[in-house]
Sequence to fold (427 residues):
Amino acid sequence: MRQRGSKEAERIGKDLVAASATPLLLAILHKGPSYGYAIIQEVRELSGGELEWSEGMLYPVLHRLEDQDLIESYEERGDTGRKRKYYRLRPDGRRALAEERRQWDVVSAALTKAWRPA
Amino acid sequence: MTEDDAITKYREQLTAEADLARGDLDEIEDHLRNLYNELRERMPHGDAIAEACRRLGDPRQLAREHARVRTPFGARLSRRRAWSAAVLLVPMAVQAVVSARHWGMASPAGIECGLVLFVMAALVGRLTWARPIIVGSLAATLVWNLTVALAMPIEMPHATLFLVSNLGALAFLVPWRRGELTPAAIGLALLAPAYSAAASSLWFYASSPDGVVVINPIGFLAALCVVLAGIGFVLRARWGAIPAAIAALSLVGVTNAFWPMDWRMPGGEAWRMLVLGNFMFGAATAAIAAVVCWRTARSKLGTLRHVLS
Fold:
């Protein structure tokens, strides 16, 4: 994944974008089943447009999560009448999301404390 | 360039770099169309399609990323499905072991038992080439058992039992989603009926009018070639097409050899038709597999890269 932004200074680092991909995807799918294009839109909305992925690269990540049994896919006819692949969270995915959340909370709390003025 | 032309070109660039299952390509196409429709509201057609392709990413890089996750034989089975199918296949494995112990490990039954256990271990290990092989084998066995059950319901009651158990295992392995298996996987699945036909030809003891038992070397050749072709498929090697073609020709030869024989067994004529039909079906699937192998192979000699994937 790669992030793009209108201003160089606003760009979020490549490593941070990559590290946040799995928890973000799991969190979005925790709200309900979704498909690739809608997921990208949601990521953009959640990050206020600052976190943008190279859109095609979303799919290898989704397929990797599927391979790890964290999510599963199914097909349903979309509003255009074409079949569309949807993804939903599996029980292992819920557990992985809880663990990701715990770890990110620890990191976030540590950073908040570290950046507090002395 | 129209929207459809641009999408076709993008798909071609993806498949030129790596084997992507049709389902994965359709998913990317769906995204591209959605993106184009969104952008079309704000910019001219040409710019919208160019921007949509740009935002989706370089197709060559995208294909390479896909290839890291997806194998040439399609999506990996989930643990749940792989284990469920394996459990349902246990009776088949037990039957293979019992048969091998009865006939000896050097017999066709012994070799088949080894192959069954090897492929089942690969299924449990979620190696992606195991799934098409088992799907093909189960489909071939299913067609055979269904035909036998319909033709001779009283003489072969156990065929009905195997029909049910095979259907159960197949339900977990069959690609329910459109394009879930790649063409290479379908080619591999097509080899299974060819192997089944070749192996079944080895089970018959044909004797000449003077009472001498006639061995069936052409059946051995067909079985050996199908196994070699299977290895070629897994290695993604073009040479795999050669043994597949030889297997097809051998099975035609087997059909030709069995055709004039006098079938001295209960239900002889019905068996004759079933068995000859099975040989011809196997020859046809081996021939199609040879073409698929030639067209989908990545190189002449192949690579070991996908063996453990």
User: Anything to note?
Assistant: The mean pLDDT of chain B is 84.
